[in-house]
Amino acid sequence: MSLRQMEYFLAVVEESSFTRAAELLHVTQPALSHQIKSLERTVGGPLLERLPRGVRLTPMGRAFLPHAERSVRSAAQARRAARAAAGAEGGELHIATVHAVAVGILPEIFARWRAAHPAVGLVLHEYATTEALEEQLERGVADLAVGPPPAHWKGPVFPIGTEDVVLVVPFDDRLAGRTSVRLDELADRPWVRCAMEPVVEGRPFLDHACARAGFIPRTAVRTEHTSTAVRMAAAGVGVATAPAHMVRGAVGEDCAVLAVDPPWRRQLAVFSRVEPTGAAAAFTELMGTAGPLTRTAVPPLR
Length: 302
Prior knowledge:
Elements: H1 3-15, H2 18-25, H3 29-43, E1 48-51, E2 54-57, H4 59-84, E3 92-98, H5 99-104, H6 106-116, E4 121-127, H7 130-138, E5 144-147, E6 157-169, E7 180-181, E8 190-194, E9 199-200, E10 203-204, H8 205-212, E11 218-223, H9 226-234, E12 239-243, H10 244-251, E13 256-260, E14 264-271, H11 278-289
Parallel strand pairs: 3-4, 3-5, 7-13, 8-11, 8-12
Antiparallel strand pairs: 1-2, 5-14, 6-12, 6-13, 6-14, 9-10
Helix pairs in contact: 1-2, 1-3, 1-4, 2-3, 9-10
């Protein structure tokens, strides 16, 4: 079994066609079919079912697919790491993160990186949830991830600071002139909820926090992305929670921002499958020293 055979297999799966996969790979269709059949002989059974119009995975193929993806991506990651190992002066670095971090933190970090390491290309992979972020990093999609520290991660984890979590309301809201608010003052408000909402003690954070304040939050809208939730809140749909550093980046000056009393803060970290070297190590160091995060120890979300 070779890496090239797994690459051919993934191309056929992605294109759902031997013909299109062969064109993509710049090989003849008979050569592609020969490599797939050789792979199937090696694993001991059919991976693909040939149909009159296209192909689909067999049960054995579905079981084989995630391992093939991981092997191909790990090989690509190894090539990038080798090229970038000599002082972070070459190669390509893949960074995975959640949407709020991509909007609020990474633009400044990426600008600093490009100024210091112009020969290292950056590729950003964004995800709507921390679960998807961790799953895709485990599958080898990226070299590093930036986000909330994973609870059960087997690889290296590097804390880089904390972000303030604030409330977003319209400018004409009765609370807009204040700098902070107690949560129980919002018991009668509708809320815009986001898929990125962290989990605390097994419950979505807002449910947990509001229960401590003596009420159940009434959800008006659920969104995938934090920037969408902020836009909705700015329009008056409901109160939204968001990291302070990304609110201005998401909506400019179109909303009022309120701190919560007592403050809400969320920890962030860089984590990876293996110990960072070369470009990955340099980027991890930059994340720990630059950007809008708070570096001193503060209580996490609770």
